[in-house]
C-alpha cells in the first residue's frame, strides 16, 4: 500500500500540472492539444541537464537547473502554438496535433545527436539515461520515499488556485475565454492574455514532462515519449471542469488507476487475480473513456475556446 501511495503521489503531480496548463490555455480561449508534445520537449531538456550536471553540484542547484530547463523548453515549444493560433489564426486542433508529432521526431533526432557527440560517435541511440542526476530529487524516509517533484507539484497547485481565484490577471484571462470582444471593449489586450495563457501551459506542461520521465516512469531513462500522459491530462482537465481544485481531485483518481500498473504485483489480492499486466496498463485510459462518456455532456467549456479572435467581429 505504501508503494501505491508513492506512485499515486508522483503520478497525480504530473497530471495536475499538465492539466492545469491546459486549463490556463483554454480559459484564455486557446485549445492546447499539444500538451503531449510540450511534455516531451520539457522532459528532453530536463533529462539532458541531469545528464550534464557535474556530480559535485549541490542538490539544490541540480533541482533548480533541471526544472528551469524543462520549464523554458515547455514555454518555447508552446510559442509554436501561440504564434500559429493567435497571430495566424490557424486551426487549433491541427496545430496541437502537429506539435505532438514534431516533438517525437525532434526529440529522437536531438537525443541521437546528443549521445553521438558525448560518446565521440560510439552511441547512436535515442535513449537518454539520467540516473545520476535524478538521485538529487529523492527524499528518503523510513517507510516511503518522496521526492522534490511532489513538493514542486503541490506548491504550483496552491499557486494556481491563488492566481485563478484571487487575481485580476485570472479574471481577465477568463474573460478572454468567455467573451473576448467584451473583454477588448473594456481595455483588455486579448492577444496578450491568450499568449500568457499558452505560455503558462507550456511552463506547467514542461515541468510535468520532466516529472513524468524522471519519477512516474521509474526507469530513469528518456526515449522520446511520455506514453500518452498529455492526453490523459486533457481528460483530467475536462473531468475537473477547468477548475484547479476539481482538477486536483480528478488527477488523484486517475493517478490511482495509473499507479496500479506499477504496483499490482506487490498487492496480494490484485496479483492473485487472473488479470495480466497489460490490462492494468490500460486502466487509466479505460477509466478516462468511461468518465468522459458520462460527464462530457454536462461539461461547460469556455465559450470562446477554439475560436480565433477577430478584433473587428462583434
From TrEMBL:
InterPro entries: ABC_transp_permease. The keyword Ligase does not apply. The chain crosses the membrane at residues 6-24, 31-54, 60-86, 93-114, 146-165, 195-215, 221-240, 247-267, 273-294. One of its GO terms (molecular function) is transmembrane transporter activity. Keywords: Cell membrane, Membrane, Sugar transport, Transmembrane, Transmembrane helix, Transport. One of its GO terms (cellular component) is plasma membrane. It is found in: Cell membrane. The keyword Transferase does not apply. It is a multi-pass membrane protein. It comes from the Bacteria. CDD domains: TM_PBP1_transp_TpRbsC_like. This is Simple sugar transport system permease protein.
Amino acid at each position: 500500500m505504501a508503494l501505491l501511495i508513492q506512485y499515486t503521489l508522483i503520478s497525480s503531480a504530473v497530471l495536475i500540472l499538465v492539466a492545469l496548463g491546459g486549463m490556463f490555455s483554454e480559459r484564455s480561449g486557446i485549445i492546447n492539444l499539444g500538451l503531449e508534445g510540450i511534455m516531451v520537449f520539457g522532459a528532453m531538456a530536463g533529462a539532458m541537464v541531469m545528464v550534464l550536471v557535474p556530480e559535485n553540484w549541490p542538490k539544490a542547484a541540480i533541482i533548480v537547473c533541471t526544472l528551469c530547463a524543462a520549464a523554458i523548453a515547455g514555454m518555447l515549444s508552446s510559442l509554436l502554438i501561440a504564434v500559429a493560433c493567435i497571430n495566424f489564426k490557424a486551426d487549433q486542433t491541427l496545430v496541437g496535433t502537429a506539435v505532438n508529432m514534431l516533438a517525437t521526431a525532434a526529440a529522437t533526432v536531438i537525443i541521437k545527436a546528443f549521445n553521438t557527440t558525448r560518446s565521440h560517435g560510439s552511441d547512436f541511440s535515442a535513449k537518454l539515461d539520467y540516473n545520476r542526476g535524478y538521485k538529487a530529487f529523492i527524499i528518503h524516509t523510513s517507510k516511503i520515499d518522496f521526492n522534490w517533484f511532489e513538493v514542486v507539484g503541490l506548491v504550483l497547485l496552491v499557486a494556481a488556485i491563488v492566481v485563478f481565484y484571487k487575481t485580476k490577471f485570472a479574471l481577465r484571462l477568463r474573460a478572454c475565454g468567455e467573451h473576448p470582444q467584451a473583454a477588448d471593449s473594456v481595455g483588455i489586450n486579448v492577444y496578450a492574455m491568450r499568449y500568457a495563457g499558452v505560455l503558462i501551459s507550456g511552463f506547467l506542461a514542461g515541468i510535468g514532462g520532466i516529472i513524468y520521465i524522471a519519477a512516474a516512469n521509474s526507469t530513469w531513462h528518456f526515449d522520446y515519449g511520455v506514453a500518452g500522459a498529455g492526453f490523459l491530462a486533457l481528460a483530467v482537465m475536462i473531468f475537473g471542469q477547468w477548475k484547479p481544485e476539481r482538477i486536483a481531485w480528478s488527477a488523484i483518481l486517475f493517478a490511482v488507476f495509473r499507479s496500479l500498473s506499477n504496483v499490482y504485483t506487490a498487492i496480494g489480492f490484485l496479483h492473485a487475480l487472473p488479470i495480466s499486466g497489460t490490462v492494468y496498463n490500460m486502466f487509466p485510459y479505460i477509466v478516462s473513456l468511461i468518465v468522459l462518456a458520462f460527464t462530457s455532456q454536462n461539461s461547460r467549456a469556455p465559450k470562446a475556446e477554439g475560436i480565433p479572435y477577430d478584433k473587428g467581429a462583434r
